[in-house]
Design brief:
It is a single chain. This protein is mainly α. It is built from 9 helices and 3 strands; from the N terminus they run H-H-H-H-H-E-H-H-E-E-H-H. Helix 2 packs across helix 3 and helix 6 packs across helix 7. Strands 1-3-2 form a 3-stranded antiparallel beta sheet.
Amino acid sequence: MEKRNELLLRALEAVLLPLTRLCVAQGLAYDRAEEALKQAFVDAAREAKRAAGGVGARDVSQVATATGLSRREVARLSAAPDASAAAKPSAVNQLYLRWSTAKKLRDESGQPRALPRTGKAPSFETLAGSITRHVHPRSLLDEMLRLGMARLSEDGQTVYLEPDRYVPEKDDAQMFGFLGANVGDHLAAASANVIHRDRRHFEQAIFADELSEPTAAAIREIAAQQWQRVLAEVVPELERRVAEDQAAGRSGTHRARLGLFSFSEPENDHEAKP
Protein backbone atom coordinates (compact mmCIF):
# COMPACT_ATOMS: atom_id res chain seq x y z
CA MET A 1 0.00 0.00 0.00
CA GLU A 2 2.79 2.44 0.86
CA LYS A 3 4.47 1.85 -2.48
CA ARG A 4 1.20 2.56 -4.29
CA ASN A 5 0.75 5.75 -2.26
CA GLU A 6 4.24 6.90 -3.26
CA LEU A 7 3.38 6.30 -6.91
CA LEU A 8 0.09 8.14 -6.46
CA LEU A 9 1.87 11.12 -4.87
CA ARG A 10 4.19 11.36 -7.88
CA ALA A 11 1.19 11.38 -10.18
CA LEU A 12 -0.52 13.94 -7.94
CA GLU A 13 2.49 16.25 -8.13
CA ALA A 14 2.46 16.04 -11.94
CA VAL A 15 -1.25 16.89 -12.04
CA LEU A 16 -1.13 19.65 -9.44
CA LEU A 17 1.83 21.59 -10.85
CA PRO A 18 0.01 22.87 -13.96
CA LEU A 19 -3.01 23.77 -11.79
CA THR A 20 -0.88 25.67 -9.29
CA ARG A 21 0.84 27.52 -12.15
CA LEU A 22 -2.62 28.66 -13.22
CA CYS A 23 -3.52 29.65 -9.66
CA VAL A 24 -0.34 31.70 -9.30
CA ALA A 25 -0.84 33.33 -12.71
CA GLN A 26 -4.42 34.28 -11.81
CA GLY A 27 -3.59 35.43 -8.29
CA LEU A 28 -5.60 32.72 -6.53
CA ALA A 29 -4.18 32.38 -3.02
CA TYR A 30 -3.29 29.05 -1.44
CA ASP A 31 -5.98 29.22 1.25
CA ARG A 32 -8.76 29.33 -1.36
CA ALA A 33 -7.23 26.46 -3.33
CA GLU A 34 -6.87 24.51 -0.07
CA GLU A 35 -10.57 25.04 0.65
CA ALA A 36 -11.46 23.65 -2.78
CA LEU A 37 -9.24 20.61 -2.17
CA LYS A 38 -10.87 19.94 1.20
CA GLN A 39 -14.30 20.16 -0.41
CA ALA A 40 -13.23 17.72 -3.12
CA PHE A 41 -12.00 15.23 -0.49
CA VAL A 42 -15.34 15.38 1.32
CA ASP A 43 -17.32 15.02 -1.90
CA ALA A 44 -15.19 12.07 -3.04
CA ALA A 45 -15.47 10.29 0.32
CA ARG A 46 -19.23 10.74 0.40
CA GLU A 47 -19.48 9.55 -3.23
CA ALA A 48 -17.50 6.40 -2.38
CA LYS A 49 -19.73 5.85 0.65
CA ARG A 50 -22.90 6.09 -1.47
CA ALA A 51 -21.44 3.69 -4.05
CA ALA A 52 -20.85 1.18 -1.26
CA GLY A 53 -24.43 1.58 -0.06
CA GLY A 54 -23.40 3.31 3.14
CA VAL A 55 -25.94 5.58 4.83
CA GLY A 56 -26.60 6.51 8.43
CA ALA A 57 -26.19 8.99 11.25
CA ARG A 58 -22.42 8.46 11.48
CA ASP A 59 -21.88 9.93 8.03
CA VAL A 60 -19.76 12.86 9.23
CA SER A 61 -17.55 10.61 11.36
CA GLN A 62 -17.04 8.14 8.53
CA VAL A 63 -16.17 10.88 6.04
CA ALA A 64 -13.76 12.41 8.57
CA THR A 65 -12.07 9.04 9.02
CA ALA A 66 -11.78 8.50 5.26
CA THR A 67 -10.34 11.96 4.55
CA GLY A 68 -8.29 12.76 7.66
CA LEU A 69 -10.25 16.00 8.13
CA SER A 70 -11.83 16.90 11.45
CA ARG A 71 -15.53 16.24 12.03
CA ARG A 72 -16.08 19.99 12.38
CA GLU A 73 -14.49 20.61 8.97
CA VAL A 74 -16.52 17.84 7.35
CA ALA A 75 -19.75 19.23 8.81
CA ARG A 76 -18.91 22.74 7.61
CA LEU A 77 -17.97 21.61 4.11
CA SER A 78 -21.02 19.35 3.89
CA ALA A 79 -23.23 22.42 4.21
CA ALA A 80 -21.68 23.99 1.09
CA PRO A 81 -23.74 23.90 -2.14
CA ASP A 82 -23.00 21.07 -4.57
CA ALA A 83 -20.94 22.39 -7.50
CA SER A 84 -20.27 19.02 -9.11
CA ALA A 85 -22.88 19.21 -11.88
CA ALA A 86 -21.27 18.75 -15.28
CA ALA A 87 -21.18 21.82 -17.49
CA LYS A 88 -23.25 21.50 -20.63
CA PRO A 89 -22.36 23.21 -23.91
CA SER A 90 -24.11 26.55 -24.33
CA ALA A 91 -26.52 27.15 -27.20
CA VAL A 92 -23.82 29.25 -28.89
CA ASN A 93 -21.29 26.42 -28.73
CA GLN A 94 -23.86 23.89 -29.93
CA LEU A 95 -24.65 26.17 -32.86
CA TYR A 96 -20.97 26.60 -33.72
CA LEU A 97 -20.41 22.84 -33.58
CA ARG A 98 -23.45 22.06 -35.74
CA TRP A 99 -22.46 24.66 -38.32
CA SER A 100 -18.86 23.43 -38.51
CA THR A 101 -19.76 19.73 -38.89
CA ALA A 102 -23.09 19.37 -40.73
CA LYS A 103 -22.51 18.16 -44.30
CA LYS A 104 -25.39 20.21 -45.69
CA LEU A 105 -23.76 23.36 -44.34
CA ARG A 106 -20.43 22.85 -46.13
CA ASP A 107 -19.36 24.33 -49.45
CA GLU A 108 -17.73 22.50 -52.38
CA SER A 109 -14.33 22.56 -50.67
CA GLY A 110 -15.75 21.00 -47.50
CA GLN A 111 -15.55 24.19 -45.43
CA PRO A 112 -18.49 25.67 -43.46
CA ARG A 113 -20.44 27.79 -45.91
CA ALA A 114 -21.44 31.41 -45.35
CA LEU A 115 -25.13 31.67 -44.45
CA PRO A 116 -27.74 34.32 -45.20
CA ARG A 117 -28.62 36.01 -41.95
CA THR A 118 -32.37 35.35 -42.35
CA GLY A 119 -34.70 33.43 -44.61
CA LYS A 120 -35.35 29.82 -45.49
CA ALA A 121 -32.82 27.06 -44.79
CA PRO A 122 -29.94 27.08 -45.05
CA SER A 123 -29.72 30.36 -43.15
CA PHE A 124 -28.35 31.45 -39.81
CA GLU A 125 -31.89 32.06 -38.59
CA THR A 126 -33.05 28.50 -39.32
CA LEU A 127 -29.83 27.00 -37.98
CA ALA A 128 -30.23 28.90 -34.71
CA GLY A 129 -33.85 27.77 -34.50
CA SER A 130 -32.78 24.14 -34.85
CA ILE A 131 -30.56 24.51 -31.77
CA THR A 132 -32.97 26.27 -29.42
CA ARG A 133 -36.37 27.95 -29.43
CA HIS A 134 -35.69 29.68 -26.12
CA VAL A 135 -33.12 32.19 -27.40
CA HIS A 136 -33.75 34.55 -30.34
CA PRO A 137 -31.41 34.01 -33.34
CA ARG A 138 -30.35 37.66 -33.12
CA SER A 139 -29.17 37.13 -29.53
CA LEU A 140 -27.17 34.04 -30.55
CA LEU A 141 -25.62 35.95 -33.46
CA ASP A 142 -24.69 38.89 -31.22
CA GLU A 143 -22.98 36.51 -28.78
CA MET A 144 -21.07 34.72 -31.55
CA LEU A 145 -19.92 38.07 -32.92
CA ARG A 146 -18.85 39.19 -29.44
CA LEU A 147 -16.81 36.03 -28.92
CA GLY A 148 -15.21 36.21 -32.36
CA MET A 149 -16.82 32.94 -33.44
CA ALA A 150 -18.52 34.54 -36.45
CA ARG A 151 -18.41 37.73 -38.52
CA LEU A 152 -20.81 39.64 -40.75
CA SER A 153 -20.43 40.79 -44.33
CA GLU A 154 -20.16 44.53 -44.91
CA ASP A 155 -23.88 44.82 -45.62
CA GLY A 156 -24.70 42.75 -42.53
CA GLN A 157 -26.78 40.23 -44.45
CA THR A 158 -24.37 37.27 -44.55
CA VAL A 159 -22.81 35.45 -41.59
CA TYR A 160 -19.40 33.77 -41.81
CA LEU A 161 -18.15 31.17 -39.36
CA GLU A 162 -14.67 31.89 -38.00
CA PRO A 163 -12.51 28.72 -38.00
CA ASP A 164 -10.67 27.45 -34.93
CA ARG A 165 -12.69 29.56 -32.52
CA TYR A 166 -14.74 26.90 -30.75
CA VAL A 167 -13.12 27.93 -27.46
CA PRO A 168 -14.27 31.55 -27.03
CA GLU A 169 -11.09 33.29 -25.88
CA LYS A 170 -12.88 36.51 -24.90
CA ASP A 171 -15.21 34.84 -22.40
CA ASP A 172 -13.50 33.99 -19.09
CA ALA A 173 -16.51 32.13 -17.72
CA GLN A 174 -16.58 29.73 -20.65
CA MET A 175 -12.79 29.42 -20.82
CA PHE A 176 -12.57 28.33 -17.19
CA GLY A 177 -15.70 26.23 -17.63
CA PHE A 178 -14.07 24.33 -20.50
CA LEU A 179 -10.91 23.90 -18.42
CA GLY A 180 -12.80 22.31 -15.55
CA ALA A 181 -15.11 20.18 -17.69
CA ASN A 182 -12.56 18.91 -20.21
CA VAL A 183 -9.63 18.31 -17.88
CA GLY A 184 -11.95 17.05 -15.16
CA ASP A 185 -13.46 14.37 -17.39
CA HIS A 186 -10.05 13.43 -18.81
CA LEU A 187 -8.70 12.98 -15.30
CA ALA A 188 -11.86 11.11 -14.27
CA ALA A 189 -11.30 8.63 -17.10
CA ALA A 190 -7.63 8.09 -16.22
CA SER A 191 -8.41 7.77 -12.49
CA ALA A 192 -11.27 5.34 -13.09
CA ASN A 193 -8.96 3.16 -15.18
CA VAL A 194 -6.67 2.83 -12.15
CA ILE A 195 -9.45 2.33 -9.58
CA HIS A 196 -11.68 0.01 -11.64
CA ARG A 197 -9.37 -2.26 -13.60
CA ASP A 198 -12.34 -4.04 -15.19
CA ARG A 199 -13.93 -0.87 -16.63
CA ARG A 200 -11.60 0.79 -19.11
CA HIS A 201 -12.26 4.25 -20.55
CA PHE A 202 -10.40 5.08 -23.74
CA GLU A 203 -7.46 7.22 -22.60
CA GLN A 204 -4.39 7.17 -24.82
CA ALA A 205 -1.67 9.62 -25.88
CA ILE A 206 1.33 9.75 -28.23
CA PHE A 207 4.59 11.03 -26.73
CA ALA A 208 7.76 12.09 -28.53
CA ASP A 209 10.88 13.89 -27.35
CA GLU A 210 14.14 15.18 -28.84
CA LEU A 211 12.10 17.21 -31.35
CA SER A 212 13.22 20.34 -33.11
CA GLU A 213 11.30 23.55 -32.39
CA PRO A 214 9.61 23.58 -35.85
CA THR A 215 8.53 19.95 -35.45
CA ALA A 216 7.16 20.63 -31.97
CA ALA A 217 5.28 23.65 -33.30
CA ALA A 218 3.81 21.59 -36.15
CA ILE A 219 2.12 19.19 -33.70
CA ARG A 220 -0.63 21.68 -32.93
CA GLU A 221 -1.49 22.00 -36.62
CA ILE A 222 -1.52 18.22 -37.02
CA ALA A 223 -3.88 17.93 -34.04
CA ALA A 224 -6.15 20.67 -35.41
CA GLN A 225 -6.43 18.88 -38.76
CA GLN A 226 -7.21 15.56 -37.08
CA TRP A 227 -9.80 17.23 -34.85
CA GLN A 228 -11.69 18.52 -37.86
CA ARG A 229 -11.87 14.93 -39.14
CA VAL A 230 -13.08 13.72 -35.75
CA LEU A 231 -15.78 16.39 -35.63
CA ALA A 232 -16.96 15.61 -39.17
CA GLU A 233 -17.33 11.90 -38.38
CA VAL A 234 -18.30 11.77 -34.71
CA VAL A 235 -20.86 14.57 -34.38
CA PRO A 236 -23.25 13.22 -37.08
CA GLU A 237 -22.88 9.71 -35.62
CA LEU A 238 -23.71 10.98 -32.13
CA GLU A 239 -26.71 12.89 -33.44
CA ARG A 240 -27.93 9.74 -35.21
CA ARG A 241 -27.59 7.66 -32.05
CA VAL A 242 -29.34 10.28 -29.91
CA ALA A 243 -32.22 10.31 -32.40
CA GLU A 244 -32.40 6.51 -32.20
CA ASP A 245 -32.49 6.67 -28.38
CA GLN A 246 -35.32 9.16 -28.48
CA ALA A 247 -37.27 7.16 -31.06
CA ALA A 248 -36.85 4.00 -28.99
CA GLY A 249 -37.85 5.74 -25.76
CA ARG A 250 -34.56 4.90 -24.06
CA SER A 251 -33.90 7.05 -20.97
CA GLY A 252 -30.96 9.43 -21.13
CA THR A 253 -29.05 8.50 -18.00
CA HIS A 254 -25.46 8.85 -19.27
CA ARG A 255 -23.16 11.55 -20.56
CA ALA A 256 -19.90 11.30 -22.51
CA ARG A 257 -17.02 13.51 -23.60
CA LEU A 258 -14.58 12.80 -26.43
CA GLY A 259 -11.58 15.07 -26.89
CA LEU A 260 -8.14 15.54 -28.37
CA PHE A 261 -5.33 17.79 -27.19
CA SER A 262 -1.76 18.63 -28.06
CA PHE A 263 1.01 20.06 -25.90
CA SER A 264 4.67 20.85 -26.44
CA GLU A 265 7.36 22.76 -24.56
CA PRO A 266 11.17 22.84 -24.28
CA GLU A 267 12.21 19.79 -22.29
CA ASN A 268 14.15 21.73 -19.63
CA ASP A 269 11.52 24.47 -19.04
CA HIS A 270 10.30 23.13 -15.72
CA GLU A 271 13.16 20.86 -14.69
CA ALA A 272 15.35 23.43 -12.97
CA LYS A 273 15.05 23.54 -9.19
CA PRO A 274 15.73 26.70 -7.13
